[in-house]
Amino acid sequence: MYIQDAWYAAALSGEVKREPFARSILNEKVVMYRTSTEQVVALEDRCAHRQVPLSRGRLVGDELQCWYHGLRYDCSGACVSIPSQNTIPINARVRAFPVVEKHGLIWLWPGDPAKADEASIPNHWVCAAPELAGKMSYCTIDCNYLFGIDNILDISHAAFVHQKTLGSLDIVETPPEILIGENEVRVRRYMRREKTPPLYTRILQMEYIDRSQEVLYWPIGNTRVETRAHACGDEDGKVYHVYTTTIFTPATDTTSHVFVGMHRDFDVDNHMFTEFTAKEVFNTVMEDKDVAESLQANWDPKAPMIDIQLDRPAYAARRILERMGAIAAIRATV
Amino acid sequence: MYIQDAWYAAALSGEVKREPFARSILNEKVVMYRTSTEQVVALEDRCAHRQVPLSRGRLVGDELQCWYHGLRYDCSGACVSIPSQNTIPINARVRAFPVVEKHGLIWLWPGDPAKADEASIPNHWVCAAPELAGKMSYCTIDCNYLFGIDNILDISHAAFVHQKTLGSLDIVETPPEILIGENEVRVRRYMRREKTPPLYTRILQMEYIDRSQEVLYWPIGNTRVETRAHACGDEDGKVYHVYTTTIFTPATDTTSHVFVGMHRDFDVDNHMFTEFTAKEVFNTVMEDKDVAESLQANWDPKAPMIDIQLDRPAYAARRILERMGAIAAIRATV
Amino acid sequence: MYIQDAWYAAALSGEVKREPFARSILNEKVVMYRTSTEQVVALEDRCAHRQVPLSRGRLVGDELQCWYHGLRYDCSGACVSIPSQNTIPINARVRAFPVVEKHGLIWLWPGDPAKADEASIPNHWVCAAPELAGKMSYCTIDCNYLFGIDNILDISHAAFVHQKTLGSLDIVETPPEILIGENEVRVRRYMRREKTPPLYTRILQMEYIDRSQEVLYWPIGNTRVETRAHACGDEDGKVYHVYTTTIFTPATDTTSHVFVGMHRDFDVDNHMFTEFTAKEVFNTVMEDKDVAESLQANWDPKAPMIDIQLDRPAYAARRILERMGAIAAIRATV
After folding, report:
1. Of A181, B304, B309, C158, whose CB has the highest number of CB atoms within 10 Å?
2. Distance from CA of B79 to the nearest CA of C (A)
């Protein structure tokens, strides 16, 4: 029961080149490639003839040629050549998915192409803002995408899962302000004289900081954590902005694609620093991957569960998805 | 819904020795061994007592002794000894399968032994002809055996899958003559001044050849490709015969045994050349294995499919199997 | 249909320390640890909040803290701390299992705690007797625990499976005396002038021995083989006692925990000899593991089976389990 009529992050811009690239999106096998004019094409990854994955084929000009019998498909998914015959059956085609490249990501629309409106592409301006420096990475996590969203929306886990990276007990002890919109959830905290978390120590080089943090979620799987930090008490001094983007796309029911990046508005020309922060934030995602996969492996839908106060943002997100029809009715106790 | 009353290639002669040898045939676990007089025996690979695989046991004379409690079975599958007691239960036996060794292969009959007629063993004379040189190999392919037969009967895939070995665009461009018999399918092509495919270049050492090729299929999983080649235009000159045998036996519904060999009528005493051609043809089978396993892994029985003209021989083969009751009714568009 | 109200060996004493230790018992995920006073605690290995395995968490004093959001549980399974809030939901708890440490083993009661009577813990005095020397080991076997019990109760398999270790054809040829009690099965053999089995040769250093052997089984998965050996004919001379303990605990339906040890009443201060015998008996268990896993992998519940005379003790054990409600009705022919 995935929402089909929505844009999903399918790949980093840099992942799709002039050769076939395979990825499962919402249980669909998809092959992507770039045309000679750098346009991204996304087709069903299954030849209309005998189901061989087209991603094992090769590009001939802007057409994708099947590895097995050489059938060629154009960018619309229509079969345009069958080597051994002159006629082409009317139904010789594979599905073509609307795709748009924006903010350094390839966005794919699995649903009705007529409804694909580019204006509704999730706004990840942070990932492409000229005034910011940062870098996106990709990984998979073997869990349902909802567990990924839960993870970001209850940032208090940082105190335990990310002890060595983002860990800060102050986060757990600071009650959040929760803003629930029609189509988004925001979780705000303001921490004064916080012991700087290990990762931020390495980035900001201050032992204690004042920090405000806002976690933003919007459908289907978009999240951004915005951090504003400054030297303790120095409210008029330099403010450091750090944006952590994490986007979840369902691959299958128990595996997810994760696109993650950290962007900042200071020291923006320092490329080594950009590489360093990208690596650090990727390491924290590896910690999340560990806990999320361990949760998925242990998951028993019949086991009783309790809710805690900090689950409220995650439930707010699920209620948005429930209204969209993406998940079944929620019973929450907080 | 496999045809039980038929002969299936179960092993190469050289694979079965004076020790138990396990192989699954049509989802049945079978153990084979040779008696002291070199006769091949094939029994159910599951002790009648506690189901331990007999293939983990050992031969005592011509009897197979179970690894666990030492029960011994004779060549008819009857239990003839239980170490700890003098009486033997009447139903203490495992199934014995009719087996015949012919043309360098062990043929097994999974069905009613009373119907096993040696005269109906598929005629792979090529594999044992004294005037030919060649060698058989064995491999498994993780796909249904029907995909293997499809592969051989549409040899046009050579232009794409076997670009570096058998590849020849001429094959795709030469319309085949298709001869459909009651119990066989033949696909013939005659190519003049063909750019010699890489594998044949290495064998025949000519850049261009005139070549006729006939692909022969007969049930259940027997195929042979007969090639006659000669120097371009030199129809009265030396003719080179090359026979490529490929036999498919279902192991399970998604795995198959493949017996493959290349035999020739020239340079027959050159053993190094025999080894070389055996290795080359095995390499092409590895290319087929790659495409067939990729197809099987991608297979969705509900996905729509189109047919192409070159599928006609494969459909003819499937109609033979359909008439035999081996597969369900076929709906083909070519 | 496992018996819940019973004591099961869950771990060797030495396996459970001041850190979480995970093990599945009767399809339940369990985490064990020791308190600061060395008491063993066993809890459900699934946080009541979001199902993350508690075994991935850490001890804070005698409380177990979840890895994800820091919830803490006391030894009774009650959640006693949720870092981000002051109240704790009434149902915030995980199951706690009665556990008792006895005879060098941790015994766990998966059923109703009110019925857990320490007096009913299986009496493995051999494993803790001061006058004996020996050592327990642990391994898993990928088979149902019943196949493990079968294996011990038909010791005749030693002649085939353990040819290189315990193997003795005399065992097969010596008819056993079978004593079937309400709640135990005993299988006795007395062998005069037996060719000393390889393992015993290494232990006793005699080529031939007189030996009595009694195999004892009692529910759920307890077995002990008691061997009395002396020099041939020397009935008044020195008697060597060797006890081989093997305890099976279901992990899942097709995997079992096995606790195994060999204890003796001679040369008891020789620690190297103790290590040596522990290693030897572990090697024989590896042989049993091989045959039992091979049986489980080959197992087809619909395949016909015969019984042999030596199956009587195993059926007697199964009848005890049948009366307890642990297994379905048995149809045996011996």
Report:
1. C158
2. 11
